[in-house]
């Protein structure tokens, strides 16, 4: 049966979070969401962190509607509108090239969208990246678009275009004024570096004070350091990071990841008025990581921080138990000792007296709320099981189970 005859066409997709190891900060075009530098990220596994989105179209719908985490939101917000316009433009383009016959009516249909995260929104865990990547992917499936979705996702949130792929992903800044060459590409698949692990140290689950969009806009306007970074530092770092990933060189990867995070936060401090996303606990984590590495005489763990105080720590699987023990030592869990560690199982380990002495920190109880242990993962997926749909046959959100 052709799609236009169905009362309701519905698809459900999932998309991952990504964490940048070479950061995107600053736009050269606010409208088209074009960056002032290229960036590179690691896609995190959806078993731990993901967005799930259902998109449904029907000739019976009278308006576009969206529900986020169960609550209806304003569908008129500009970024959402930009994504919808862009996907419908791509769908129209595809139809007009005669790839499909007869032209379905579905293009004029209104869409209902429901989306849920399995992690807190806007806590510095890149929820907007997973959210807009999932939206772009689900809309593409429901409207029958199979072209590159970088532009659709990017219009929602710049970093979202990197969540369209698994593994290691670069967002090439591009040069064109229309942004056609500002696209995400996979550098290496998720299977490339199986030993790599990611620990998210959740410091605060509160919403951040200054969103990325406003923050980077002020940085572009006022920070000479940011301009220097984009022009003189990032191009070389992109080459170096790509090389470290390809060679699975953890020492190089870890050092560059930390340096790039530090430089991003330095540009925030160079912004006027200054922006600061790191908390006291974040700085203690930085210190812990450097003490841990100094004790081992090599880069065994590496931190990175986005626009919030949570740390994302990269390490290799054989280092995870000892580093988690070090985190427990420095930030003793307050009440949730059993729920402190989520995600992948971690073998218990005890700290050697030497390492305990090397850490040289006063413990801060409750400083780290919990750790999510995860790994590199695949890109967006389409779910075939109809039970997965967040919208019922009437096109409205199913009551939460
Ligand atoms: C610090 O992609 O959230 O996480 O394009 O304005 O939506 P907008 O910004 P966003 O910025 C992400 C900034 C970052 C670094 C990164 O992910 O590269």
From TrEMBL:
<keyword id="KW-0444">Lipid biosynthesis</keyword>
<dbReference type="GO" id="GO:0006695">
    <property type="term" value="P:cholesterol biosynthetic process"/>
</dbReference>
<comment type="pathway">
    <text>Steroid biosynthesis; cholesterol biosynthesis.</text>
</comment>
<dbReference type="InterPro" id="IPR014721">
    <property type="entry name" value="Ribsml_uS5_D2-typ_fold_subgr"/>
</dbReference>
<feature type="region of interest" description="Disordered">
    <location>
        <begin position="377"/>
        <end position="401"/>
    </location>
</feature>
<dbReference type="GO" id="GO:0005524">
    <property type="term" value="F:ATP binding"/>
</dbReference>
<dbReference type="Pfam" id="PF22700">
    <property type="entry name" value="MVD-like_N"/>
</dbReference>
<dbReference type="GO" id="GO:0019287">
    <property type="term" value="P:isopentenyl diphosphate biosynthetic process, mevalonate pathway"/>
</dbReference>
<dbReference type="InterPro" id="IPR041431">
    <property type="entry name" value="Mvd1_C"/>
</dbReference>
<comment type="similarity">
    <text>Belongs to the diphosphomevalonate decarboxylase family.</text>
</comment>
<keyword id="KW-0456">Lyase</keyword>
<dbReference type="InterPro" id="IPR029765">
    <property type="entry name" value="Mev_diP_decarb"/>
</dbReference>
<keyword id="KW-0152">Cholesterol biosynthesis</keyword>
<keyword id="KW-0153">Cholesterol metabolism</keyword>
<dbReference type="InterPro" id="IPR020568">
    <property type="entry name" value="Ribosomal_Su5_D2-typ_SF"/>
</dbReference>
<comment type="function">
    <text>Catalyzes the ATP dependent decarboxylation of (R)-5-diphosphomevalonate to form isopentenyl diphosphate (IPP). Functions in the mevalonate (MVA) pathway leading to isopentenyl diphosphate (IPP), a key precursor for the biosynthesis of isoprenoids and sterol synthesis.</text>
</comment>
<keyword id="KW-0067">ATP-binding</keyword>
<dbReference type="Pfam" id="PF18376">
    <property type="entry name" value="MDD_C"/>
</dbReference>
<keyword id="KW-0547">Nucleotide-binding</keyword>
<keyword id="KW-0443">Lipid metabolism</keyword>
<dbReference type="InterPro" id="IPR053859">
    <property type="entry name" value="MVD-like_N"/>
</dbReference>
<protein>
    <recommendedName>
        <fullName>Diphosphomevalonate decarboxylase</fullName>
        <ecNumber>4.1.1.33</ecNumber>
    </recommendedName>
</protein>
<keyword id="KW-0753">Steroid metabolism</keyword>
<dbReference type="GO" id="GO:0005829">
    <property type="term" value="C:cytosol"/>
</dbReference>
<dbReference type="InterPro" id="IPR036554">
    <property type="entry name" value="GHMP_kinase_C_sf"/>
</dbReference>
<feature type="domain" description="Diphosphomevalonate decarboxylase-like N-terminal">
    <location>
        <begin position="15"/>
        <end position="184"/>
    </location>
</feature>
<feature type="domain" description="Mvd1 C-terminal">
    <location>
        <begin position="198"/>
        <end position="382"/>
    </location>
</feature>
<keyword id="KW-0752">Steroid biosynthesis</keyword>
<keyword id="KW-0756">Sterol biosynthesis</keyword>
<dbReference type="GO" id="GO:0004163">
    <property type="term" value="F:diphosphomevalonate decarboxylase activity"/>
</dbReference>
<dbReference type="InterPro" id="IPR005935">
    <property type="entry name" value="Mev_decarb"/>
</dbReference>
<keyword id="KW-1207">Sterol metabolism</keyword>
